[in-house]
Amino acid sequence: xxxxxxxxxxxxxxxxxxxxxxxxxxxxxxxxxxxxxxxxxxxxxxxxxxxxxxxxxxxxxxxxxxxxxxxxxxxxxxxxxxxxxxxxxxxxxxxxxxxxxxxxxxxxxxxxxxxxxxxxxxxxxxxxxxxxxxxxxxxxxxxxxxxx
Length: 148
Known about the structure:
Blueprint: H1 5-22, H2 25-38, H3 41-63, H4 70-85, H5 88-115, H6 126-129
Helix pairs in contact: 2-5, 3-4
């Protein structure tokens, strides 16, 4: 592949877009939320303990209900996951991650549709998956007057 001035221009634009994404409010919120979670020693220890429990869970999953500790591990992992999910810092991190992912999805759609409206762009949020009036996937068979 030859490096032409067009490619150099595109690469410069990509670098600029990258800098804009990294300096966005969503990226900063994500950095702060992640820092708050992993600088909390107690919460970090709880996360590490949960990771070890997940390893046990994977071992139990290989044998299913025939594993001798199946019921104990299954109950314990659900309880620990609930405790971690109820933590305010973890909840804030998840919100920040979702906001950042939405930003990336919007940018992907803008870039994809600048090439052609027919370009299929994978997105994590179903709201962005379709530009129809109902948001796509309504399942009513056209009963909502959408173009799906």
